Amino acid sequence: xxxxxxxxxxxxxxxxxxxxxxxxxxxxxxxxxxxxxxxxxxxxxxxxxxxxxxxxxxxxxxxxxxxxxxxxxxxxxxxxxxxxxxxxxxxxxxxxxxxxxxxxxxxxxxxxxxxxxxxxxxxxxxxxxxxxxxxxxxxxxxxxxxxxxxxxxxxxxxxxxxxx
Length: 164
What we know:
This protein is of the alpha+beta class. The protein has one domain: CATH 2.40.50.180. It has helices at residues 71-74, 125-130, 147-150, 153-163, and strands at 16-24, 27-32, 36-41, 55-61, 64-70, 87-93, 96-102, 104-112, 116-117, 131-136, 141-145. It has a six-stranded mixed sheet. A five-stranded mixed sheet has the order 3-6-7-5-4. It is globular, with a radius of gyration of 17 Å.
């Protein structure tokens, strides 16, 4: 009997997660594809005075002003030079459309729920809030994020004032 490989679909009845994977600081993260409205190449970002350090500014996306959150800064990493791989992942959080700046988008994945497990307890309370699980793929780990928890409700609301 053939054994299913980690990351492969094990059975026709198994529930699958469909994710968008992206890289930040050499690590791979995944988010539910249903949360993602679109993925854009780097656009011209207008800096906003007195915005939090993790907000790079705002973009004009087809007539809508959208705040851009730099995931590297939000995770406490250093900024890096933007390049041709840099992308803005546009999502809606609590009724607010937000762009998340990532180093690059890798792929759309379908993974069985059976290969994910809860995040390690050592991550600490704050990090554990937005890291929902870890997916064990064949040759790598995928950190699953809840984008709605990356920013607090107050921070999400403050982004509305930036986008006005």
